[in-house]
Design goal:
It is a single chain. This protein has helices spanning about 5-10, 20-35, 40-45, 50-65, 70-85, 85-100, 110-115, 115-135, 135-150, 265, and strands spanning about 155, 160, 165, 175, 180, 185, 190-195, 205, 210-215, 220, 225, 230, 235, 245-250, 255. It has about 280 residues and is an alpha/beta fold. The chain is globular and about 50 Å long. The model is unreliable at about 275-283 (pLDDT under 50).
Length: about 280
């Protein structure tokens, strides 16, 4: 493996022109192929690809393939999007790094790239969002539907996602049309980012940089979840949360302090002792 590239990934330093993520991913695939021959076709989809984007497309086509849309058609659509918008590939690289940095169950880039449905769901959405924004709403809806079937998430193609997102486990994640998620956000399974009515206007949450959202949290309405804040697991949030605060409970109460400098990076879901006990819940 390229030690320089590997070191860059570990430290989180900016990627060089030679593309450290792609270099390390290929090295991991080569090493894995020699140890697990039965999965050679999966590794070959990386080793035989000229770029990160090409490998990502092949992986998604294999997972999303269905007899309703021929694989060459799906592949061509993805390639058009990736070539038109280099930000798709750049964001995919950042997302892949985020998984390895924040998930102790993942020691290699290869694992989320090939096997983790949270990563795959986010990448599928990136292509669907491009379709939505570029006059192909029906194909965007198809990708939303197909991703829901395969990855157990439901992400409207209109939702806007930043870079460095980590969707852990993925099952049950829902994001509505006017959702905005900024960079470096971590979200666990069963989270709903939804609306509170049937109005057509802006109606979904805006999640700012560095936020951690715990499993089963429900966040509704055109509200803001401030930067580096934390939403405790199982909370029901219908009011904006200031930056660097924690929302906890049903309905959620706001407490000061996120418990860590960057909760999305640390994945620290603890609450300060004593603070949590002072709240009375309304069920």
């Amino acid at each position: 493996m390229d030690e320089k590239a590997s070191a860059i990934l570990r430290t989180g330093a900016p990627l060089p022109a030679e593309d450290a993520v792609w270099t390390v991913l290929q090295a991991e695939a080569e090493q894995a192929r020699s140890g697990e021959a039965a999965l050679a076709p999966l590794y070959d989809s990386i080793l035989g690809a000229p770029t990160f984007e090409s490998a990502l497309i092949e992986t998604l086509v294999a997972r999303l393939g269905h007899n309703s849309i021929a694989a060459p058609t799906l592949r061509a659509k993805f390639r058009t999007a990736a070539e038109a918008d280099p930000a798709i590939g750049a964001a995919g690289r950042a997302d892949l790094k985020a998984v390895v940095e924040r998930d102790p169950a993942s020691g290699r880039l290869l694992e989320p790239f090939l096997f983790f449905k949270g990563f795959a769901a986010i990448q599928t959405h990136r292509f669907a969002h491009w379709m939505w924004a570029n006059g192909r709403p029906d194909f965007a809806r198809y990708l939303q539907s197909r991703s829901s079937e395969v990855f157990q998430t439901d992400i409207h193609p209109g939702a806007e996602f930043g870079r460095g997102l980590f969707l852990d486990h993925a099952t049950g994640f829902v994001a509505g049309e006017t959702v905005v998620i900024e960079d470096d956000v971590s979200i666990l399974h069963g989270v709903t980012l939804g609306g509170t009515g049937n109005q057509k206007k802006d109606r979904h949450p805006k999640v700012r940089t560095g936020v951690l959202i715990g499993a089963g949290a429900i966040i509704l309405g055109d509200i803001e979840i401030g930067a580096f804040s934390k939403i405790a697991s199982g909370s029901f949030v219908t009011q904006s949360v200031p930056p660097r605060c924690t929302a906890v409970g049903v309905p959620a109460r706001i407490i000061e302090g996120a418990g860590s400098t960057n909760p999305a990076q640390s994945m620290d879901q603890h609450l300060a002792l004593g603070t949590y006990e002072s709240f009375t819940y309304v069920i």
